[in-house]
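#structure-requests
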Amino acid sequence: MHDHARHDHERQHLLELYLNDHLAAAYGGAALARRIARTHPTTTPDLWRLAREVTEDRDTLVQLMNSLGVQPRRHRMVAGAVAERVGRVKLNGRIVHRSPLSDVLELEAMRSGVQGKLALWRALRRVAPDDDRMCARLDRLEERARHQAELLDAQHAEAAERSLSESERAYPVYPPKPVAGCL
């Protein structure tokens, strides 16, 4: 019995770490989604919807954590928001202004975050208590994450085409000059 209690305690501890790690990412993801909607040249109502949904998903994660007896750690929330701000500093060839690559890189980061969130909902579905309402909620969250990923994929394709072609005009690539003695 003692080993069983220790195993339950360890399992709960691992669940707390896992969910708080995802919560940190969710805070950073919500900030990134808002910035994408605000700054991307092709901002559409879909990007504003994405920003709202990502924030709702983060809040839902907190609710699920509470229902599973997991305490959200405030320092993790702050760390996620700070990480998003630090992520704005990129080696993209521009110091003060946004590079054309900023849109592509931000959409890739957001897509990675949505993929992680999708994995989270699937993992929770496997360990959720026998609670039909929670399982149905996780199913809806999983479906929404798939739709978010599709939207981000489409936005990324457009941004890559736009940015890389703009970058090519802004930074022309010249063929290397022949070096004497080389063919």
